[in-house]
Amino acid sequence: QRRPITVGKTQRQRRFKPGVAALREIRKIQQSTRFCLQKTPFQRLVREVTQNTKHAEHEGGLRIQASALEALQAASEDLLTSVFEMSNLAAIHAKRVTIQQKDMVLVKNILTIGDHLGTA
Question: 3-class DSSP state for residue 12?
C-alpha cells in the first residue's frame, strides 16, 4: 500500500526500497493472533483424514467438537511455523535466502533423530 506524496501540484506514488513492504507485511502477520489457514478447508481436511479410522465407522461417523478442531488447528499451525523457521535456519546456514526442499528434508531428519534419542 503506497501513500501519495505531493510534489508541487502533482501527486506521485511513494516508492519503498525492495523488501520493505514484505518485511512490514511479515511483522503485521506475526503480531496478529488469527489463524493463517482458513477454518473451513482445515476442517474438511481433518474430516477427510478421520473418516478412514475405525472409530468413524460407528454410529454415522466421528464427531469432533468445534473447540477440538480449533485446538488441532492451533497445534498444526505452530508445528508448521516451527518447521518453516528451522528450514529457514538451514537455508541461511547453507548461505542461501530461499528455502528449498532439501532444507525441509534435513529438518524432518533432525526431528526424527531427536524423537529416537528421546525414547532411548
Answer: strand
In the numeric block, the cell 531427536 is attached to: 114
Here the cell at position 86 is 528451522
Q: Which domains does the chain have, with CATH numbers?
A: 38-119 (1.10.20.10)
Question: Contact at 8 Å (CB) between 104 and 83?
Answer: yes
Please state, in angstroms and rounded to a whole number, the distance separating the CA atoms of residues 2 and 28: 16
Burial status of residue 30 (CB atoms within 10 A of its CB: 0-12, 13-18, 19 or more): exposed
| Residue 5 CB contacts under 8 Å (≥ 6 apart), including other chains | 11, 12, 13, 14
What values do phi and psi take at 98, rounded to 5? -95, 135
pLDDT in tens, 28-58: 888 888 888 899 999 999 988 888 777 767 7
- Single pTM value for the model: 0.70
What is the tens place of the pLDDT at every residue in 5-32? 666 667 777 788 888 888 888 888 888 8
